[in-house]
Amino acid sequence: MLFLYLLGITGWGVWLGRGQRGSSDYFLGNRGLPWPAVMLSVVATETSTLTFLSIPGISYLGTLTFLQVTFGYLLGRIVIAGLLLPAYFRGDLSTAYVLLGSHFGETTQKVSSAVFMVTRLLSDAVRLFVTAIPMAFITGWSYPVSIGVIGLATVVYTYFGGIKAVVWVDVVQMCLYVGGAMVSIIALQTLVPGGWSEIITSAREAGKMTIIESSFDLSVPYTIWAGVIGGGFLTMASHGADQLIVQRILSCGDITAAKKAMIGSGMVVLSQIFIFLVVGLGLWRYYDAAAFASSDQIFAEFLVEALPPGISGLLVAGVFAAAMSSLSSSINALASATTYDFFAVMSQKGDAALLKVGKLSTLVWSALLIGGAILFIPFSEGSAAVEVALSISSIAYGGLLGAFLVAVFSISKDQLSVISGIVLAIGTVTFIWIFARDTVAWPWFVPIGSAITVLVAGMLGRVRANSIRESKS
Question: What is the pTM assigned to this prediction?
């Protein structure tokens, strides 16, 4: 069943990409994709296998407090809809970073795009590795072989299908993996003596039903403050300053459709995360809180070993659906950033040439993501991959979001100042991640980075402006 699914979804994706005539069609679907499809594609893109496998592991080991982060996810989307989307739809933007280029200059556009590329490569390599866990369980293949199979299957329809294939395949794949989680909930009702009544009772007695944590301790990652503030800033960065999501939004026909897709995706994500956390509680009771080498293996092992073969195959297909949707989106977004933020800026070639560059970039980034996932294998034991990936993304997100805030609020127009702010923000948050992660949890990385970028760009910009005025007087 799994291999039939991989073949079917790949073939359909290739078919969806027929008749493409240029880079705008390939990367933006000629800006005519329906907002409900874009909304679900946004959710599928940000979900990945990490949500499907890692989030149940978080509630298995802890409580439901991760849900607090999704409150910030929704709030952040509302801010984006009111603040950043109008700026994106004022012009004919091809990537998120063209906005920065028009405000500060081409160097800022290239620097911000490069930061996006490196961050996306590292975090999505982790996501691709997680996909190899159930593949290895099922087939007995090694992790490198498993990574290669899922990576190659994804790149085929991404290469031929472009954004249209990515979005519409995302819609189908999201329905599959969410359906898989719901089937798991139904199965746990039968597999656990006493069903969900017993699961909830046991979880409540063990203190695992907590959703709101009001602590002000910055070292605690899942509090209401870290969730609303940190989660809000994280979403403002990931959905407002990251080409991965902005590309989806730009494919909508107009700003009204874009706002519906953005805010609607927040409501869907909140519901989805809750479902996966509930699955984790059921697994905790089913396995009687047994220890696992990695929290990411818990749900994968349940899918493969505890369920009947037919249902197991369907649910494992859901795992791959989550992985392929996120991976294909990343490949396409990385290729579009390479094409528009670098090649198009340096060359005056036409749309047909940009399409060729885009397809070549698709192959290059696919190879890099597959290689990065393989390199992550030695560092994966005992870690929660979702937190690793979010930490990596959050290191750079603050600098990027801060640059967009500087542009939107016209705090400064000095290119050197904003680039200095981005670099200092990323450097500071990296230092915190390496040396003070036990003191400052990852949800605070983006607010810290954003504040540093805005302050440095504003202050240095004023100093340089005064210096220029004095030199002219």
Answer: 0.85
